[in-house]
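Hey, resending since the last one bounced:
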Amino acid sequence: MGGLIPGPDALIRFAVLCAIWVMVLGGGVVAYFGYGLPDKVSFNIASERKPSIRVMSIDGATLATYGNRYGNPVEVRDLPDYVGEAFVSIEDRRFYDHFGIDLLGIARAAWTNLTAGRIAEGGSTITQQLAKNLFLSPERNFGRKIEEVLLAVWLEFKFDKQQILSLYLNRIYFGQGLYGIDSAARHYFGTDPRRLNLYEAAVLAGLPKAPSRYNPMVDPKRSAERANIVLNAMVANGVLNKARAERAKQTRVRTARRASSGPGVRYFSDWVLDRVRDYVGYVDQDLLVYTTLDSRLQEVAESNLERALESPTAAEKRVGQAALLAMTPDGAVRALVGGRDYYESQYNRVTQARRQPGSVFKLFTYLAALDKGLGSNDWMRDVPISINGWEPRNFDRKHHGTMSIRDAVATSNNSIAVQLAMEVGLDKVIQKAHDMGVSSQLNREPSLALGTSEVSMLEMTGAYAIVANGGFAVFPHAVSRITGRGGDVLYERSDDFPARLMNPLHAGEMNNMLASVIAKGTGRNAIIDRPAAGKTGTTSDYRDAWFIGYTADLVAGVWMGNDNGSPMDHVTGGGLPAKLWHDFMLHAHQNLPVRSLGKAALARSKKIGEDESWRDFTKGYSSGNEKQ
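The structure tokens again:
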């Protein structure tokens, strides 16, 4: 039996043989994966990036940033000591001791992942992360990991630790399209990275692990928790004493700019982004897009819409979605909320959705009637009618005999609206809607007068803006100017005087009738502390509920419903939508800044002021509100 046990010489020969084979195989792996590395060792790859498009509000707030933003290069030696130490402590605490690969760190990460039963910790060093960011694709496989290791060793051979850390800080991703500590410091804290304080450095050092999750503008509490972990890591690494760390800790990160609006503003900024190429063509440089949106009014819109949808009444009445759009009478969009939750659904119910408008569509019927010579004081009979077997019914299922056109508008009478549409002609109604900016297909059928053809909120609110401004053409718009690299103006909205689309007498009369809707009709829930006019709309089975109205300064539309078209529980346009409109407009006018609308708007205002019928109308519906 003893002859079967190998002697010491045999064991030594076996060990040497294994070592030789390991060296041969290792050398083969290194040769195989290292063969193409000279082509990868080029910093040209690092310069490839998507152009940055920054969307700005009219009051100077950054609403959203698309693409990548790189700051100016900085050297770590020019930064406060705690900046580099924060990153080293949380990302690679043995950075100054290894040669690009941290064998102890790999072993620790492997044990942690094994005991946790999942990938809970990584073993990549700062040098490896830099190699990956500079030279390699994001794919994850064994070959790419070998290349990463070889490139990390090469970087350690080529540069000293301070240079490597500087390269890392200038290339790492900090979320929101920000690359490099310079862009991150300026965006999140409004400061030069050389002036970062300890806590700000800890916040930034905590971002690379999960930039979206720890974004201080999106979740300041979670970001603060992560920053406190970084401070603890600095204490553990011996670069910060515990007392100073405890003094620096916070429960909420304060950024340079308070988010003036929530994620709902992304409905607006996405809509703007889709139109940038129409204005400037192919985008091959960084752009600044200056918009008409007012961040303060946007905040008012978002908060009021959220409050309305979260109310017990909305839940009880099965209201799943809502949208709100506000613009000036010349079509400059000041606030837009396309739904209740952007992260849950990016579908924009202001610009993309087509829904039946109900009685808000009656605007075009009455304007066509005014063109034919009928007036608001003319009388008609509310009686049962039948058109090819179809019998329109009023909301209360009753008929009310003789009434004025004004009262028919105020009470949203269906019988009279259909009678008028048939009298003036459906083609005239359709043509009036198209002339006023409705591009959706409209069906030539008697029920058209009651809003059975689907339209967008953008179209309908823009049409009401035409009436609000006295009959001048409106093109709802969001972009005022686009500048490129170096501030070159690539696009600027023209201030040309718009065409008049309707007789000013008809505009004044229509305004007077719509004012009666709020003063004494179906829109009484929309009464505010100033003259206002508008129209309610409710579709069959309560699937859609609308209110669109305006003051002298602002036009706003509200829609409520469900994306799947399921009915709400007796929600009418004069109910929850009118109340939301009321709350928004009341708060909006308290926050409404005085802004120049440009030469065309000022000229239009002057012309309206000279219009005798317009002055009479203003007196008329001011007194109408006072009676309420």
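The two ends are 113 Å apart (CA to CA).

Sorry for the duplicate.
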